[in-house]
Batch of 4 targets.
Target 1
Amino acid sequence: MPSHVHLIFRSRSNEPQKLLQDFKRFTAKRLLSAIRENTQESRKQWILCMMGRLGRKIGQDYQFWQQHNKPIELWSVDVIDQTILLEV
């Protein structure tokens, strides 16, 4: 699926939700700026329109990432191997 991403990360502060929130906020702002500034992007208006429509549903200007997450705690090497193999 080209429309999603899997992240494997570790939160030093034991606050993975905060780390993910910060990551999503940072990347969404950067990607929105990149889309706006790219004069070669032929789908720019459509992308901004779709992101704007989704954002208005939740009271924001734009929405890039989905609101929900499906975190899986990777607590052992066996779980990591099993999870990675399931996704390939």
Note: Residues 16-87 form one domain.
Target 2
Amino acid sequence: MRTHTGVHARGGVQAGRVVAAVADVMAFTIGLWVLLYFLDANRGNGLVEFVHDAATWLAGWSYDLFTFDREWVQVVVGYGVAAVAYLVIGHLVAGRLYRR
């Protein structure tokens, strides 16, 4: 069995770190929007609007998977599913890259 050492091993570790970091930033952005929602942040503020737009784009595929009567539950579940998916999938891919 051939082992990976040197440049190839370092490349896998670096790629894994990048994938994990991107997944973390995506999940953080979504989580930050949920926090701003609960804090009733001013949606007219440029930063709040940017975070909301980014989180909405990132969670666009998951937001309407389930529907709830209460808006806050819809926000938590709709955005939370995407955040967890990005973390889990991103870190699974990163782990595979680390082992290359």
Note: The mean pLDDT is 90.
Target 3
Amino acid sequence: MSAQTEFRASKKTKIKDVDAGKKPLSSGDKEKDKQQTLALASEIGLQQEMLYAGQHHKLLVVLQGTDTSGKDGTVKGVFNSINPQGISIVGFKAPSTIEKAHDYLWRIHQQVPIAGEITVFNRSHYEDVLVTRVHNWIDSGECERRYAHICDFERMLAETGTTIIKFLLHISKDEQARRLQERINDPEKNWKFDPQDLEERQSWDAYQELFASAIQATDADHAPWYVIPADSKTHRNLAIASVVLETLQALKLKPPPANPALAGLKIV
């Protein structure tokens, strides 16, 4: 079974039913899994070179998840073999004053990949139907309208040459507690701790329900969701790297044809 099939979400996906500790791709040996991920990351880098050289395709990778779910770790572990010229990592924070003065997708559209590029969204436009809904900054009617906007937006991107893959990094509540406590206990990790994370943790159940609702409303063949069990950092990276590589391989990328004008050219 392919990784795409293993982790593919659906309109019926319920996050609470997904085992965050599941490791279906693991060999049972942590070091072997790490080496496999490195090999996959290297192959992703080679695929990206053909993507960059051909300038015909674009890949958008969306990473969503609760605090401590491993979005930063995924970026480091999966996309570390890509030429910096061919990848863009975008981290979305709370919108600025000027961003708030525009529609909520305005700042997102500016960051989508250009031809030949992979762009990774560390958080994304889905914050506008997650955080906003948890805190009742928008009501259910506006949330439904935004689901429709997002579906239209992603369809437009797909129809103009962007391949989209969306990942929910799913951790358990106990694992989040462990990771937050580690940030408190380890002085070298104190900088990672944000008291706001504890406030957001109080809305754990609401977030799980909203993740499921967002997936059910916006999953599509041209913009699929994958739910990645992420209690294991090693397996999380292995799973995401596998899906990304399968997605790139399905594009059947090839280097551009040789330039006949260079045949026989000698450098003296």
Note: The mean pLDDT is 93.
Target 4
Amino acid sequence: MLKALADPARLEIIRLLKNSGKEIGCGEVGESIDLSKSTVSYHFKALREAGLTFTRKESREKFVSLNYDAFNKYLSGFLDSL
């Protein structure tokens, strides 16, 4: 988990998800933090594999949301610090 959070782009994705309070599409994240769709997808995969996010696929679009249970259990207070 900590390795996944060590990347500044991933922290920005987590911050964006936290501030939105809902799931966000891959394309929307890329536009918000000025990264290509493939780069955002790479970061989504790392966050998902670390158990920090959930990914839902609808048609050709992927949507990501935070796994609040994981943050509360393993990284208590982390989201409040963003």
Note: The chain has a mean pLDDT of 91.
